């Protein structure tokens, strides 16, 4: 007879256990990398360099949406989580319907501090960019993705798309007076751990 204390030895249970073990190891690795922002981004830049080198050395015409996807990630990183233009439209609709408008958040420099909350957090931006780069490197190993194109058109398309979307994003930043970076604005009071 089988004891009920024995773990099931079916192949499905063994595969599930191995998959769970791999997931845990992957998550532990990501958790260890979390506080090392500069090193993470340097690693991703290195992967991008390997990707570019792979394209040059293979002399292929690899079409993947890598650059466009990274541009999309950058735009989501620069946008606020709660879009002020949508909030303005909702407030105008409430006033037209005769409803009461909710109290506004502070809007002047002397009002309460409101931190900038991104639509795409830095960690997710890095993780998505790194995964896309690794996938792109993998795609360069197969000739299925080696479709001949006239590359100057793709390069021009990317730069035009980048210029137009960044222009729109910068105009949005100016209109709603927000800066997605806190470089140089944060007050530092010295080493608090030394006290």
Automatic annotation (TrEMBL):
Q: Where are the transmembrane segments?
A: 41-63, 149-166
Its record classes its membrane topology as:
Multi-pass membrane protein
Location of this chain's protein in the cell: Membrane
Q: Which GO terms describe its biological process?
A: protein retention in ER lumen; retrograde vesicle-mediated transport, Golgi to endoplasmic reticulum
* Any one GO cellular component localisation term in the record: endoplasmic reticulum
Q: Which UniProt keywords apply?
A: Membrane, Transmembrane, Transmembrane helix
The answer to whether the entry has keyword Membrane is yes
Pfam families, alphabetized: Rer1
Which family does the record assign? Belongs to the RER1 family.
Q: What does this protein's UniProt record list under function?
A: Involved in the retrieval of endoplasmic reticulum membrane proteins from the early Golgi compartment.
**UniProt protein name:** Protein RER1
Species of origin reads: Athelia psychrophila
């Amino acid at each position: 007879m089988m004891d009920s204390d024995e773990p099931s030895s079916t192949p499905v249970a063994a595969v599930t256990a191995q998959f769970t073990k791999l997931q845990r190891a992957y998550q532990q690795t990501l958790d260890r990398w979390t506080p090392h922002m500069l090193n993470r981004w340097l690693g991703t830049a290195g992967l991008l360099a390997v990707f570019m080198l792979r394209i040059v050395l293979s002399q292929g015409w690899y079409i993947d949406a890598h650059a466009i996807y990274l541009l999309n990630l950058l735009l989501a990183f620069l946008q606020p989580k709660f879009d002020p233009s949508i909030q303005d439209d909702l407030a105008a609709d409430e006033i037209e319907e005769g409803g009461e408008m909710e109290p506004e958040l502070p809007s002047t420099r002397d009002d309460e501090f409101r931190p900038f909350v991104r639509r795409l957090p830095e960690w997710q931006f890095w993780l998505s960019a790194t995964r896309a780069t690794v996938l792109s490197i993998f795609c360069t190993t197969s000739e299925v993705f080696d479709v001949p194109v006239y590359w100057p058109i793709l390069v021009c398309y990317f730069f035009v798309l980048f210029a137009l979307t960044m222009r729109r994003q910068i105009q949005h930043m100016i209109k709603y007076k927000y800066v997605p970076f806190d470089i140089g604005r944060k007050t530092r009071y010295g080493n608090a751990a030394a006290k």
